[in-house]
Design a protein that fits this description.
The structure is a homodimer. By secondary structure, chain A is of the alpha/beta class. Chain A contains 14 helices and nine strands. In chain A, helix 8 links the parallel strand 8 and strand 9. In chain A, helix 9 crosses helix 10, helix 9 packs across helix 11 and helix 10 packs antiparallel against helix 11. Chains A and B meet through strand 8, strand 9, helix 9, helix 10 and helix 11 of A and strand 8, strand 9, helix 9, helix 10 and helix 11 of B.
Chain lengths: 300, 300
């Protein structure tokens, strides 16, 4: 059985490690704050003293963090994974980072005789817990084939999309469509409220045969109308992802007017102090009169 | 069995009349250009000399046209439906018109002792043909109950959403979310192309477990990538619907920034001569360099 290293034990990574352990994998982990790894050590993971040590006997190394520089540091820093790597190690990065960062890492990891796959995920904490993530991989096809059994221990929708960066392109597309849908569903509900129509009944109607039906209307739409706090994916994290779409847009010169508007609205929401709210609070946050600023001033 | 009158024998209305005839309803029709009704007369419909004549013995009167003024003319004009209506006639308008026009018609039809339901539909020509439309009704609940069997002969997702205008609110929400999704999917595919990634593979991946999954990515997304001409719902008709959302926005003062951007992009596309193209050609139309103008100039 392949041996696995894992760094990034947060709300997404933690459940992934548990799923790997359940499947019988030996998982060596490292964490900047070792106390955060305790529950995983109790579940059977082996805590190591550095990324290099966690990589020492690994066949596959997984990272699941927030930003590109963190991945770079973990893989290529002093005491990084590549320092401890055996030849042919396959690094699969489940973080959402930019396409160019992924391509750059792939080249630099290859210089160490290892492989790098960009392998961002979709589905959120619930899918991480249930092992039903979607995982979109870019990079060398044989490295993907090697990583596949491990990836399929965490996700039920695992696909190879092409060369390095392809996984991040797919994730960027997903986040672009999701953010447009989130804002559109928010605006639709606002339209209902302004007209005195119950948005919950409209949501149910649209989901039942309407062409507006989809994952966001179904799931985030339900949470938008709930009074429960939204502890899910935050506005700040969505903004991070959309900034990466904008970076890719700048690199390629692609004309993406809706994405530009979305990016501006997310920047507004974070500037207004809403970065740590769940994305389902996004539209309410933006349209709340006491937080008005930026493009909101027109209406004020 | 209830007797039905029907006006609006186009690509949506024509198949609806056929489905009513198949279910055994007697359907009396009227058309400004009688030759366009011939295929329906051959299928068993009775062609009448005026809207009033088509309404003379009807229990339910259906209209399925493009614009509010047409509905008004058919129902309330000289020789209109209300002139020939028996007391208690239920008019159900399947057109997509503004909320205020629907509410206004409801009041004026009521003054004639008849009922008016706004009952816009979703699902397109295919759903009209297969009798699987979604139909979202607003208006008097007992009138809805009376019209229900007839509506269910044309649609499998028939719902009453509340008082007059509620059906049009639901339709407005549907069109708002669909137009945002159409543009977002277009931009996502453009992002793929600019990065050298196959949009068809990305589409398949996102549909398989991605949070971007939905009706538009599935159906219109497929047609966007097809080389077949798109003979479906046109950009002009979508713009008409979004203008009605904007009208509702102006009436209520609701802040809908994404909708504003979408409306501007659709206006651009129509001004560029793309009004008669299918909506799945929308993004390609907007981003085609030889048609650049309006907000496109920034990139040119």
């Amino acid at each position: 059985m392949q041996r696995v290293g894992f760094i990034g034990l947060g709300r997404m990574g933690g459940p992934c490690v548990r799923n790997l352990l359940k499947k019988g994998y030996e998982v060596r982990i490292w964490a900047r704050s070792p106390e955060k790894a305790r529950h995983l050590v109790e579940a059977g993971a082996v805590l190591c003293g550095s990324p290099a040590a966690a990589a020492a006997e690994a066949d596959i190394f997984l990272t699941c963090v927030t930003a590109g520089p963190d991945v770079e540091d973990i893989l290529l820093g002093e005491d990084g994974v590549c320092r401890g790597a055996r030849p042919g190690l396959i690094c699969a990065d489940m973080s959402t980072i930019s396409v160019s960062a992924a391509r750059n890492l792939a080249e630099r990891v290859a210089a160490h005789g290892a492989f790098f796959l960009d392998a961002p995920v979709s589905g959120g904490v619930r899918a991480a817990e249930s092992g039903t993530l979607a995982i979109w991989a870019g990079g060398d096809a044989s490295a993907f084939a090697g990583a596949r059994p491990v990836l399929e221990s965490m996700g039920t929708h695992v696909r190879h999309l092409g060369p390095s960066g392809s996984g991040q392109i797919a994730k960027a597309c997903n986040q672009l469509i999701v953010s447009a849908s989130l804002l559109a569903v928010g605006e639709a509900f606002r339209l209902c409220e302004a007209a005195g129509t119950d948005p919950a009944r409209v949501r149910e109607a649209l989901l039942d045969g309407g062409s507006a039906a989809g994952f966001v209307l179904e799931n985030q739409g339900k949470r938008m109308l709930s009074s429960e706090p939204d502890t899910g994916f935050t506005v700040r994290l969505l903004l991070k992802d959309i900034r990466q779409v904008m970076e890719q847009r700048a690199k390629t010169g692609a004309w993406l007017p809706l994405t530009e508007e979305i990016a501006a609205l997310l920047e507004d929401a974070v500037e207004q102090g809403g970065g740590d709210e769940g994305t389902t609070r996004l539209f309410r946050l933006l349209s709340s009169p006491d937080r008005c600023r930026g493009s909101l001033r027109a209406e004020a």
